[in-house]
Amino acid sequence: MENHNISSTPNSTAVENHNISSTPNTQHPAPSTQHPTPNFYWDAFKTFFKIGAFTLGGGYAMLSIIQNEVVDKKKWIPKEQFIDLVAVAQSCPGVFAANISIFVGYKMRKTPGALCTCLGAILPSFLIILCIALFFHQFMNLSWVAAMFRGIRPAVVALIAAPTFTLAKSAHISLSNCWIPIVTALLIWKLGVNPVYIIIAAGLGGYLYGKFIKPTE
């Protein structure tokens, strides 16, 4: 009788396992955040398109606008890294504006980001130059066009000069090392030294200083 009672007792363990297995799984894996959102690419394209469309005077005139958009507003690049990107863009062959836009885009989203920022930076210039080339003969003798560009030139000088002071402050230029940018400017301006050689010499000098002189101070 005791064996019969034991055999007739329902298997509580099996019922428990069945209940556990039939319980729906309410835990879902967390969504991945590794993939960049498409909004960034559109935002990067618009930002550099605006920079390219409203910058006159070449790539150096873009510095203040790029710094204001990329460093101050968007917070995509720290100010210290932006100075390094400017130095690398200057030492590389090609158009300065395209170089720095590629570096910023690649820093943010690798190759797709570089394509978006570069396309945004160069597309306005391409479209404007194309229109000027098509209708140049109609504008070349207009006095108001020449007067407009005479008024723009001083503003371009200010656009180039303004980021110089900001970059100097970020690069920790002081009375002890202010001779470096002064001598560099004179070498480029008076002697026509290639800026690439200046950057290479400055990098080599900084390496030697950090390795042999600074540890002894």
Short description:
The protein has helices at residues 2-8, 12-22, 38-53, 62-73, 79-91, 96-139, 143-170, 179-190, 195-213. The protein is mainly alpha-helical and 217 residues long.
Tell me about this structure.
The chain is mainly α and 217 residues long. It is built from 9 helices and no strands. It has helices spanning 2-8, 12-22, 38-53, 62-73, 79-91, 96-139, 143-170, 179-190, 195-213. The longest helix is centred in the middle third of the chain and has 44 residues, at 96-139. The protein starts with a helix and ends with a helix.
Q: What structural category arises from helix and sheet content?
A: mainly alpha
Number of DSSP strand runs = 0
Q: Please bin the fraction of helical residues.
A: over 70%
Mean pLDDT: 77
Question: Main β-sheet: number of strands, strand sense, barrel status?
Answer: none
- What is the rounded Rg? 31 Å
Beta-strand content estimate: under 5%
Q: Could you give the order of the helices and strands? A: HHHHHHHHH
- DSSP helical segment count: 9
Separation of the first and last Cα atoms = 96 Å
List low-pLDDT spans.
1-36
Silhouette: globular
